[in-house]
Amino acid sequence: MAGIRRQLKLGAFLYPTGHHIAAWRHPLTQADAGSNFAHYVGLAQIAEAAKFDLIFLADGAGTRGDDTEALHRTAQRYVAQFEPITLLSALAAVTKNIGFVATASTSFNEPYHIARKFASLDHISGGRAGWNLVTSSSDHEAHNFGRDEHYAHAERYERAEEFADVVLGLWDTWEEDAFPRNKQSGIYYDPQKQHILNHKGKHFKVRGPLNVARAPQGHPVLVQAGSSEPGRELAARTAEVVFTAHQTIEDARAFYADLKGRLAKYGRDHDDLKIMPGIFPVVGRTREEAQRKFAELQDLVHPVVGLSMLNGMSGGVDLSQYPLDGPIPDLPETNGSKSRQKLLLDLARRENLTIRELYLRIAGARGHWQIVGTPIDIADQMEEWFRREAADGFNVMPPQLPTGLYDFVEHVLPELRRRGLFRNDYEGSTLRENLGLKVPLHPARHAVAAE
Amino acid sequence: MAGIRRQLKLGAFLYPTGHHIAAWRHPLTQADAGSNFAHYVGLAQIAEAAKFDLIFLADGAGTRGDDTEALHRTAQRYVAQFEPITLLSALAAVTKNIGFVATASTSFNEPYHIARKFASLDHISGGRAGWNLVTSSSDHEAHNFGRDEHYAHAERYERAEEFADVVLGLWDTWEEDAFPRNKQSGIYYDPQKQHILNHKGKHFKVRGPLNVARAPQGHPVLVQAGSSEPGRELAARTAEVVFTAHQTIEDARAFYADLKGRLAKYGRDHDDLKIMPGIFPVVGRTREEAQRKFAELQDLVHPVVGLSMLNGMSGGVDLSQYPLDGPIPDLPETNGSKSRQKLLLDLARRENLTIRELYLRIAGARGHWQIVGTPIDIADQMEEWFRREAADGFNVMPPQLPTGLYDFVEHVLPELRRRGLFRNDYEGSTLRENLGLKVPLHPARHAVAAE
């Protein structure tokens, strides 16, 4: 049964209090979510009972921004929340099937630590770990790691390319059956099946081997989110899941075709990489109820927070000097996230939005696809994106937590299941099995197979 | 009741297959312990049921050594095992009271990551986290982080001093009640209770604030193990638990008096720092049974492994060129662990050991205190060390796992309890409460209190 019909892959993207910028102020939201472990245990168990493929956590190694007037009114911007790997490792101990994708930046980490922590998480979880590789585009993070500013865009990606290669190389330092652990002969590991890395590159010099046995999944699943040109090329070469942001099906289809089209030159198949755009669903039994629920959240956005959020997303330009109810001014090219800036400007121009309208427009989904409607409205659009090759699945971004996750699970999932678009039970016990991704064999096995 | 009578503090120091170098070959040992999460869940639950204060994990960010002939016959030397923070975070989710101390080196880490991960673990566990601060003295680790050799002893400690200050400073960037999270007013945090660090030192430049709220314990418990002169001074200034290695009560008493004597100049009390030597107990119902159990393990030591282990501990000098049954040659001063070298040489000279006898002598406890005897023998000596101020407690190093932990819990703990030396139940739910350590108030509170 499983695997015959193509079905949606679904991630639960858990921002502590939910994705809407004002979610924490809602009466039903867990305001202390960023340091409330029981809150996350509850969410993980609901997402697993609902058969989500994975839980996805974003990350910033530092608070993003120093505009205290806005920051002290928000639960977002990484002001105070769990570090993702520690959180997901703890959640792995109280779940059985759901996968765990933690974001970790290549800008301010060492590849040995990252390779080791994700391999460890893969063993702890029995093959349910994934790494969302990002580059950091925030000076605020750089300031916590001895630098005055973050790396320029090109250098950031050059470093990320090499970082990914080192991590993948470290994951391949042990073959699958490298550890006979034979008590009689006293042979713990087979030296022929250990491979020293000896990487010497421009940014990193790493000998290896990794001091964790080969991961149950071969490699933890490699996830990426960059959609700039170097980001797409890195994804086409190495990523297995791409989390992306699109406002329209046309944009999503173009991205999908472009990225899938780049796979062949790296010897990869169409299904070796799953594209999962973000979706911010506000669910109501009627459209009116959905609009009312959304308005409740929008009404809680403090103007200082909305404006600051927009500033952060528009490359550091201070928009407060322009009239709130006037048009978006021209923005200079930034060293930050180019794709995010373009997406925002396109949105504002397309819909002819004022500054105020734009910040309210992105207060929920932060540039991701936002649908406010009934379960049927939402399922219709998800189905259309899926069937028309705009998406292999979605990273679901609940507006508020925990209730936004309940709404999706209780109302939208049954509709997707009725249409045969989502699983009734897990296909396997590893993240790869559920995502339908191959287990990467050790390169030495390929060599044997080719003989 | 609790707190009136001074009692032993006990750690369970869990090396994957146990501390004896050949433990993994024993028929009852879990040979795949380094990647068997269920094994650790079982150990943690037994240690918690037995009311141990904490579980302690050592660490190396890389395999120690490249002598494949020896390495491929051992489950130690960090060949392949869980990364400690991911492992302890997962164990926190399936326990309620026991503390968790993970080792992390200041040599190849960033203080922001370390401060953040331990603060996160403290929140996840409800106040049960501790950080064992070590410096790395292995070139093999250095090779995984872009360096040709590890830092020289003095520089290592200079870096460690500054690293500790940055981490402590980051843990103090939020006051206890910094997060009102007031939904009506929209105030998530109180900017007056956030403190930017802005550290600019010789080794690190870190702005902060930390993006995790103040830890439930104020600070996770700070543990250290260095016993060189700069190691003692750093411990006297900052450590709350010191894990140490002594072969004789005289050495242990001298160390205890010296370290406790250094506290006053930093404004600290005698009980603000707990000294917990390692103890490697081989338990038998009779002395003969204990000796037989020990001999079973000793017989499993392959000479190549024993010799290599000694080489590693004697500062890299290749002892295989000397006669196995002859005396230990003079060893040059090393850039590695000076205190460990001295301890080994003193032991060999005191007991007039050959090279072979020395490696068998340390094959179990690796320089720590080893007792082979009945529960009463072991309790007698622990009591003597405790009453004569050689120890505030012990870090128990089971020879093999899981059975070595069972032996101690089933036979030695009842004897300690009969003597009133160990708790019947936890005093509290945090590691600090159980260790009898003060919760550090935020410096701003001290300022208020002093007004």
Automatic annotation (TrEMBL), chains A, B:
Keyword annotations: Flavoprotein, FMN, Monooxygenase, Oxidoreductase
Q: Name one GO molecular function term.
A: monooxygenase activity
Does the keyword DNA damage belong to this entry?
Answer: no
Instruction: Note the InterPro entries from the entry.
Output: Diverse_substr_monoxygenases, Luciferase-like_dom, Luciferase-like_sf, NTA_MOA
Repressor listed as a keyword: no
Question: Would you say which domain of life the source belongs to?
Answer: Bacteria
SUPFAM superfamilies found in the cross-reference section: Bacterial luciferase-like (SSF51679)
Q: Which residues form the Luciferase-like domain?
A: 24-386
**One Pfam family from the UniProt entry?**
Bac_luciferase
Q: Where does FMN bind?
A: 59, 103, 153, 157, 227-228
- Family under the similarity heading: Belongs to the NtaA/SnaA/DszA monooxygenase family.
Designated name of the protein: FMN-dependent oxidoreductase, nitrilotriacetate monooxygenase family
Q: Which organism is it from?
A: Rhizobium miluonense
Q: What is the lineage of its organism?
A: Bacteria, Pseudomonadati, Pseudomonadota, Alphaproteobacteria, Hyphomicrobiales
